[in-house]
Amino acid sequence: MIDLVLTIIFAYQLHRMSKNRGIPSLPYVMNYVVAIIIMAVSMAFVFIYFYGIDALKSEKGIQAAMLFEPVAISFEVLLFIYFRQRIQKAVVNDQTEEEDNDKKPDSGEKKDLSYFR
């Protein structure tokens, strides 16, 4: 349950940070959520491989499953930090700065545009 809450909170924070930077948030949020889902499914397969399919029916199996939880939480936090760093390093394309740099002072002479004919 804590995994779901952390995923929602971190996905919202990634969305908010990318919107504040002016970059699209969908790639960061979707990559984060997909990585969490892949990690959860792979950890479930590892648990079933080592403890068997009926492991969660006993108290000992549930305790063994709880040993995987710190790994899952640390993966979520580190993945959030990774995507946060990518958002912070992303280049922001500001249209006004590009337009100002493209404008050059008019020198008064006309360019030869005869090759367009």
Verbal overview:
This protein is mainly alpha-helical. 71% of the residues lie in helices and 0% in strands. It is built from five helices and no strands. α1 packs parallel to α4 and α2 runs antiparallel to α4. The longest helix is centred in the N-terminal third of the chain and has 26 residues. The chain starts with a helix and ends in a 15-residue tail after the last helix. 8% of the residues are buried.
List its salient traits:
about 70% helix; 5 helices; about 120 residues
Describe the SSE topology.
Elements: H1 2-21, H2 26-51, H3 59-66, H4 69-89, H5 95-102
Helix pairs in contact: 1-2, 1-4, 2-4
Q: Percentage of helical residues?
A: over 70%
Distance between the termini: 69 Å
As residue ranges, the low-confidence spans are none
The SSE string, one letter per element, is HHHHH
Q: Using only CA atoms, what is the Rg?
A: 25 Å
Shape: elongated
Secondary-structure-based class equals mainly alpha
Number of helices: 5
Biggest sheet character: none
Strand content: under 5%
Provide the residue-averaged pLDDT: 84
Number of strands: 0
Give a short overview:
The chain is 71% helix and 0% strand. The model has no long low-confidence stretch (mean pLDDT 84).
